[in-house]
Amino acid sequence: MLDIFFAMVAAGMNGAQNDQAAAAPVADPPAAVAAEPQADSSATVTIGEGSVVIGENVVVQGATAATLAPAPAPAATPAPTATPAPAATAAPAATALPAATPFNMAVVPAGLMAEDQTPSGKFTTATEIKPILNATRGNWVAVREYDGKDWLYVTHLWSWRCGLAAMAISVNDEPMQNWPLPPCHMKYTTPNAILEDDGIPALTLQLGGVQTITIQVVYDDLTMDIARFARGDVLIP
In total, how many domains does the chain have? Predict the structure, then answer.
């Protein structure tokens, strides 16, 4: 009986010690580290002769530039404010934008003349490329986050440029700017090919800065088309 009594006393003492350990206060977790302020991504885009200017004192290169300027401090990528239907299934140009949105004639180069529309077999006329660009509207532009920047590509349009007379672009509803197209290489069997001397079919902007893109094209029969894209519809890995 004494053995049972002493065993019960020992068990009671161990339980008290455990209760004291459980009641010990827990150290407060360290305060959360304040998030770094995001860079202001709202700025004017100016497409000049080989360069694009984004904001104050930040110069990044354009379609014909050879080198890239130092990148600004990376900013956190803001979430899109809306998620429209995928651009690849967008409606035709007549309803792709609100009816009140007209073509911007101020950025159409002067002196354009309609070209002969006899099919060449090399996709160098509006007659040949218009059905393709209508069917692949969602591929007109692409945005990629790379090397601390937003890369805005127009590779698809350049790849069918021989049936185009002009192209213009607006980023984040800034004023639309004409983006000169490289020449067609008619001596080759693939005149739409992008050669090294043609430059890069891309603009570099502040990381997370591209939220919307509006593209206007003039075909070489002088008809026009326009399309608008949200970042989330054209963001690629």
Answer: 1
